[in-house]
């Protein structure tokens, strides 16, 4: 059995396994078991992990979420037959890389087409000078990024920024709540001061009234 465990720990992890660990880390952050720095560090290690042993080490001190299935590939836990989580990350990364190129090329081709229609003849296809070199650079970047795991680092960075924005929004809500409570406390304190001042004024005014009552007797 130990040999089987060692063999599993040394096996290569799949994208779906990394995604499952990333989800457990996110839940741990939401529950307060990890702070933002720990979450960021573990998330980057999760997307860079190559074996099951590296993934298991990241969640060894975390309980499994209620009703959650164990990490895919763990001992005694069947791995899912298939998952498109890793493919979705790759597709989203490729879309972000190529989106500016697609928009720009679409615009310059439209300009070329309108110009050609205006003169009644197909003009020199100058958009190729925009699409060709830029497309070659993006192609090299895409191939290199896929080979080095860039989509997973990109996904980890996006998730980290999302958590940072969520924490900032929560901090702003807490500050607003505290600011809303402070005016009430100040008003209550001001009322107490006014009451105390009124009492002291009454005590000071008392002797003056007595003097006024004694003046007629002197006259």
From TrEMBL:
Domain DUF1707, first and last residues per copy: 11-63
Superkingdom as given in the UniProt entry: Bacteria
Annotated spans, Disordered: 150-219
Coiled-coil portions: none
UniProt biased composition (Basic and acidic residues): 150-160
Compositionally biased residues, Basic residues: 161-175
Residue stretches of biased makeup (Gly residues): 187-209
Matches recorded under InterPro entries: DUF1707_SHOCT-like
Pfam assignment, any one: DUF1707
Full protein name: DUF1707 domain-containing protein
Organism: Micromonospora phaseoli
């Amino acid at each position: 059995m130990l040999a089987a465990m060692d063999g599993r720990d040394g096996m290569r992890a799949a994208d779906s396994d990394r995604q499952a660990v990333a989800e457990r880390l996110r839940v741990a952050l939401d529950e307060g078991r990890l702070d933002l720095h720990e979450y960021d560090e573990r998330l980057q290690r999760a997307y860079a992990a190559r074996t099951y042993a590296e993934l298991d080490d990241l969640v060894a001190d975390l309980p499994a979420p209620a009703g959650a299935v164990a990490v895919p590939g763990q001992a005694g836990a069947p791995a899912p037959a298939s998952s498109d989580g890793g493919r979705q990350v790759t597709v989203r990364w490729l879309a972000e890389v190529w989106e500016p190129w697609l928009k720009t090329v679409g615009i310059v081709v439209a300009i070329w087409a309108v110009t050609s229609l205006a003169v009644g003849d197909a003009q020199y296809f100058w958009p190729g000078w925009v699409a060709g070199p830029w497309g070659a650079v993006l192609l090299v970047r895409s191939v290199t990024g896929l080979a080095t795991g860039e989509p997973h680092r990109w996904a980890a960075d996006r998730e980290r920024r999302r958590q940072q924005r969520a924490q900032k929004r929560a901090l702003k809500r807490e500050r607003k709540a505290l600011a809303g409570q402070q005016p009430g406390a100040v008003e209550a304190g001001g009322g107490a001061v006014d009451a105390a001042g009124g009492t002291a004024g009454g005590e000071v005014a008392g002797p003056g009234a007595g003097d006024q009552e004694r003046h007629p007797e002197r006259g």
